[in-house]
Amino acid sequence: MMRAFILWSVAAAMVAASDFTVVFETMQCNGERGFASVDMVDVSKIESGSCIDPTDAQRKLKQMLVKNGRGSFDTFSLTQSASEDVMAQIKAYNKARLENLQKTNTLIISK
């Protein structure tokens, strides 16, 4: 009974995580700016991109890989600071979620 409850709690936490949207500014290699939003659980990784940041020649743009639901990834180009903002959003959400799970007063009634 307890194991089933724990598994249900983990599944519920995973479903709840998919409700968090990360919003960020994008930048193309030519300097064109935009913005996008993605579901947090679909963010796969952030890594160095292939082109120079048009606003800071000392840095490369970052690229974020996001699962697209078709078995592949969409790629977004970001500045270093935008990638740090995305990571901060994800870390803040995960911290709040963990604190919420730790503070939950759960009553289990077994028949």
List the topology elements.
Blueprint: H1 2-17, E1 21-27, E2 33-39, E3 43-53, E4 56-67, E5 73-78, H2 80-103
Antiparallel strand pairs: 1-2, 3-4, 4-5
Structure description:
The protein is an alpha+beta fold. It has one domain (2-103): PH-domain like (Roll). Helix content is 36%, strand content 39%. The chain contains 2 helices and 5 strands, in the order H-E-E-E-E-E-H. It has helices at residues 2-17, 80-103, and strands spanning 21-27, 33-39, 43-53, 56-67, 73-78. A 3-stranded antiparallel sheet has the order 3-4-5. A hairpin with a 5-residue loop joins strand 4 and strand 5 (73-78). Residues 1-11 have low confidence and may be disordered.
Instruction: Please give the radius of gyration in angstroms.
Output: 18 Å
Would you tell me the overall average pLDDT?
83
Count of helical stretches: 2
Q: Strand percentage, roughly?
A: 35-45%
Largest sheet: 3 strands, antiparallel
Please provide the ordered H/E string of secondary-structure elements: HEEEEEH
**Strand line-up across the major sheet:** 3-4-5
Number of strands: 5
What is the 3D shape?
Answer: elongated
At the first level of CATH, what is the class? Mainly Beta
Quote the CATH topology. PH-domain like
Would you tell me the structural class of the helices and strands? alpha+beta
Architecture per CATH nomenclature, i.e. the level-2 architecture: Roll
Helical percentage? 25-40%
Overall number of structural domains? 1
Low-confidence spans: 1-11
Terminal-residue CA separation: 10 Å
